[in-house]
Write a structure and sequence with these properties.
single chain, about 325 residues, two-stranded antiparallel ribbon, 13 helices, about 5% strand, ABC-type transporter activity, membrane, transmembrane
């Protein structure tokens, strides 16, 4: 086991010593700063509530109802404003003061940037095996007194450790940036969220961890797929291309095929487990247990194929 952890340490060193890795982190930081700047510039979009928040919510509801009356048959405005009115009524009925926009809210809003981290992790995972072949360094790695299985899974584990480290960076940097730009709302204030059962007030830290936790599923599955493609074809460009295409187009594929019952067995129909929390299930009849089972089957299939190819393939001349 100590050899396994030493290999992981070595792989992480090789990942973080690259300039390209730090370019990824700088790009992510730049996106966060730019997002904070835009949000701060257009902060009138975020309501700020005072001690008279009850009257302010009632006035806001009145304005939303007037907008609904003015637009007539605009389904989007009717749906959006109706949900906001219901949310405001929940605050009033339960005597909960709305949380003003701050560091926690900004961090929660940035959960969408996990898709960028997935992209970075796909790039790392796609090259971690194929580059060893292309550079001719795989032979040097395999002459060590460790099995090919250990080598393969140390690389696989290193990719996900990189992804988790990057996600932690995203959360911490978002919190710091949000504190500087918007202020800090408190240690663990409550936030009202919409669930399948209706509105509910939850501690914002638990909601933040839940949202980021759900997004890890997509990161794991797409990176494992890219890792498998890289192992089979020894081509990082192909793995990155396929990974990015499926990362961006997975939901589109499901939408196109949604009229078929068998679409529920496709990976991308099950990759968003948060659909069961919100109640917006993509395909009727799907359950949380079903989606988890499909994900496990795909995950194991990707790993088994990677293992079979990597352990059975001969390592011949450099770059072959």
């Amino acid at each position: 086991m100590s050899k396994f952890f030493r290999l992981i340490k070595n792989e992480l060193f090789k990942i973080f010593i690259r300039k390209s890795t730090w370019v990824m982190y700088l790009s992510l930081a730049a996106l966060l700063l730019f997002g904070a700047f835009l949000t701060r510039t257009f902060d009138e979009l975020n309501s700020t509530y005072t001690d008279n928040w009850r009257e302010e919510l009632q006035e806001e509801n009145k304005q939303l109802e007037e907008e609904i009356a003015e637009v007539g048959d605009d389904d989007f405005i009717i749906s959006y404003n109706g949900e906001q009115i219901a949310k405001n009524n929940y605050y009033l009925e339960n005597d909960i003061r709305p949380l003003n926009y701050g560091a926690w809210q900004f961090t929660l809003d940035n959960v969408g940037l996990v898709s960028v981290i997935s992209l970075f992790t796909i790039i790392i995972g796609a090259g971690i095996i194929s580059n060893e072949y292309n550079w001719g360094t795989l032979k040097l790695l395999l002459i060590r007194p460790v099995s090919r299985t250990t080598v393969l899974f140390s690389k696989f584990t290193s990719v996900f450790v990189f992804g988790l480290i990057t996600m932690i960076f995203l959360m911490i940097f978002s919190l710091l940036t949000g504190t500087i730009f918007f202020g800090f709302e408190g240690i663990n204030p409550k936030i009202v969220i919409s669930t399948a059962e209706g509105f509910n007030a939850v501690p914002i830290i638990s909601e933040l961890l839940s949202s980021y936790g759900y997004s890890i599923v997509n990161l794991i599955m797409m990176t494992t797929l890219a890792f498998m493609i890289s192992t089979i074809f020894r081509n990082s460009s192909l793995a990155i291309g396929v990974g990015i295409f499926l990362l961006m187009g997975g939901n589109i594929i499901v939408s196109i095929l949604s009229r078929y019952d068998w679409v529920k067995y496709i990976l991308f129909a099950n990759i968003d487990l948060q659909q069961y929390k919100t109640g917006n299930v993509l395909v009727e009849g799907m359950t949380l247990g079903f989606s988890i089972t499909i994900l496990i089957v795909h995950f194991l299939a990707f790993l088994v194929v990677s293992w079979l190819v990597f352990t059975k393939r001969d390592v011949v001349a450099t770059g072959e």
